[in-house]
Amino acid sequence: MRDFGDVKKIVIKVGSSSITLPNGKINKSKVKHIIKEIAALMDKGYKVLFVTSGAVGAGIGKFNLDKKPKELSMRRALAAVGQVELMRFYESLFYAHDKTMAQLLLTKIDFVDEERFNNLKDLCEILMRENVIPVINENDAVVINEIKVGDNDTLSALSCKIIDADLLIILSDIDGLYDSNPKQNSNCKLISTVNSISDVEACAGAAGSELGTGGMLTKIQAAKIATEDGRHMLIINGDDPSNISKAVEGQEIGTWFRSN
């Protein structure tokens, strides 16, 4: 068993590959189970911040498209429409568990500008004091390269700084970090514990999923940010949302990046 007895504040990140169907639309059944898990953690006294992708996927459903478009302008339009749909869906699910959520759409400038970052910290402190869960996404509808975080793995690691989180949990479409690509090598082995980021950077690979922005590389970059700040990070399989509570309990699932 892993010892997370001192963990009080948790950031949970869910990516596009974990909450969307193969056609890009939102997997509503799975999302319901994820929100149920988050609500259960809150009922146990944990403070949770939720980082989500999926706005474009929700937009695909709203526009009734068959797949994710390649045109940037169309993806931005889908993000603008889909963000509303996604938050409406989340709000209804949290409400069913007697929970209130708040939406925060961020860019890199919210983390690098000291005044904006301090305002963000103050806001989230108030929200959590009132038992409101902040739900964060990048503002994909309007963000430009100069102020873009770029991927929600990194966004989740940066978001840990907002609430001084103890643990970051990233939901993936595989069981964790392997010593080689499990989609290409059936003999690969799951890495249970990572004590040093430099030991595993070569395992990441650069190829991501069709729906996501990046693969394991961005998750290892997120782990580097989190662990250097003294936080634990877990990569677990989001196909079974009950892995969230199991991981927090200390069950040895996924890959654990130990804090420095």
Question: In words, what does this structure look like?
Answer:
The chain has 260 residues and is of the alpha/beta class. The protein has a single domain, classed as Acetylglutamate kinase-like (Carbamate kinase). The chain has 9 helices and 8 strands. The chain has helices spanning 16-19, 28-43, 55-63, 72-96, 109-112, 114-129, 152-163, 216-228, 243-249, and strands spanning 9-14, 47-52, 100-106, 132-138, 167-172, 193-194, 232-237, 255-257. Mean pLDDT is 90; it is low at 206-214.
List keywords for this structure.
260 residues; alpha/beta; Carbamate kinase; eight-stranded mixed beta sheet; 9 helices; 41% helix; 17% strand
CATH H-level homologous superfamily name: Acetylglutamate kinase-like
Distance between the termini: 19 Å
* Overall morphology: globular
Series of secondary-structure elements, N-terminal to C-terminal: EHHEHHEHHEHEEHEHE
